[in-house]
User: What shape does this take?
Amino acid sequence: FWAELKRRKVYSVGAVYVVVAWLLVQIADTAFQPLGFPDAAMRLLIIAVIAGLPVALLLAWIFEISAEGVRRTQAIDTRPQPSRKTRG
Assistant: This one.
């Protein structure tokens, strides 16, 4: 399971999401008060950031971004393959 998470780059997406979300909250914390936004706007932003993390992780599991664009991640066949004996 952990190897599949790594292969599908779910770890990377999660780490990037957390860093960008933290940066967004820091900018909003600095800018919302001088712009006159109500306190509820900051709470709404934090709730949206927290709710967005599972969505981002789910999309990272399902899709991958490649040179050809966004496409569904292919599953790896983990069934054991029959071995062939060859004579040499």
Notes: The mean pLDDT is 81.
